[in-house]
Design brief:
The complex is a heterodimer of chains A (146) and B (148). Chain A has 146 residues and is mainly α. Chain A has one domain. Chain A is built from four helices and no strands. Chain B is α+β, with helices and mostly antiparallel strands. Chain B has one domain: Beta Barrel (OB fold (Dihydrolipoamide Acetyltransferase, E2P)), CATH 2.40.50.1020. Chain B has three helices and ten strands. Classes of the chains: A mainly alpha (146), B alpha+beta (148).
Chain lengths: 146, 148
């Protein structure tokens, strides 16, 4: 349970940071003249919360293989896209402009999601390398009888 | 074959060295005997009973109510439960890495990331076994020698 909360919080904070970057890039390209008030600071947090909803809902009862874990991540990512699009554009009339923005948002979410997974993977890779070094030392210790 | 025995200092690991022209069945027989003297477990394959030297085990996996012992290129079934293996196997070499797997630390070549804070142990025979998040701290502590 503790690990799950740590996981979800980690994903949330990485997501919020990447959402800020995505809003900066998308806004500069699609609506460079747009002005905002202070309320804009709440949106990355809301989007971050929406982004972790699938991770909170989907639980694995047994140990998943790496392939199954990748499939789970893809499903979670698609769920996140659907939730975000529903939150941002739900109830609005669909026109060409909206479709372009929605597609940009969907692509951004996918990039952000992949970013979160890649960053987490690199952090784990550092840990794994350290553990491998410890393992080699451990085996040398055992073989020399110390 | 001449036999030479020499005593060594207590701070060194005991060892057996065999000088031979080539590794044949006679030498393999001696190696098997020495390994069995270091401990073994009973296992089954095709209804036949075998004694598996502990030093040869890569990992033991529990699947439903059955336990499987994996060697470099062979697999045997055991009637023991995983927790029973934990008490039999030498604690300095074996560690539980998930709900269903106990691995021999001396048979791991590399540790790799496996998404979501889990890790993969790459074994000497090319197989990978997953380390669950829950067991990562224990593995880290064991490898770094910090077992408090």
């Amino acid at each position: 349970m503790k690990d799950r909360i740590k996981d979800i919080l980690g994903s949330f904070f990485i997501s919020v940071t990447l959402i800020n970057v995505a809003m900066l890039v998308l806004g500069s390209i699609l609506m460079p003249q747009q002005q905002f008030g202070y309320e804009v600071f709440i949106y990355p947090l809301i989007y971050g919360v929406i982004g972790i909803i699938p991770a909170v809902i989907v639980r694995e009862g047994r140990e998943l293989s790496v392939k199954q874990m990748i499939i789970r991540h893809v499903i979670q990512m698609l769920l996140t896209v659907v939730l975000l699009l529903a939150f941002m554009f739900g109830g609005r009339t669909v026109d060409r402009e909206l479709l372009i923005i929605a597609a940009s948002v969907a692509v951004s979410v996918m990039i952000i999601y992949a970013g979160v997974v890649v960053i987490s993977w690199f952090l784990d890779k550092k840990t794994a390398d350290r553990m491998t070094e410890d393992l080699i030392r451990f085996q040398e210790r055992q073989n020399s009888g110390l | 074959m001449d036999i030479e025995i020499k005593t060594i200092d207590k701070d060194r690991q005991e060892y057996i060295e065999i000088g031979c022209w080539r590794v044949d069945e006679r030498v393999n027989e001696i190696v098997r005997f020495v390994k069995l003297k270091q401990g073994s477990v009973e296992a089954y394959k095709d209804e036949k009973r075998y004694r598996i030297p502990l030093a040869d085990i890569l990992y033991i996996e529990a699947v439903d109510d059955r336990c499987f012992i994996y060697l470099t290129d062979d697999c045997f079934e055991s009637r023991k439960r995983l927790y029973e293996f934990e008490s039999i196997l030498p604690a300095e070499h074996y560690i539980r890495i998930s709900k269903s797997v106990v691995v021999n630390l001396m048979k791991i070549v590399q540790i790799k990331p496996a998404l979501n804070g889990r890790f993969l142990c790459h074994l000497v025979n090319g197989e990978n076994v997953i380390v669950s998040r829950k067991y990562v701290p224990d593995l880290k502590a064991r490898l770094s020698g910090d077992t408090k």
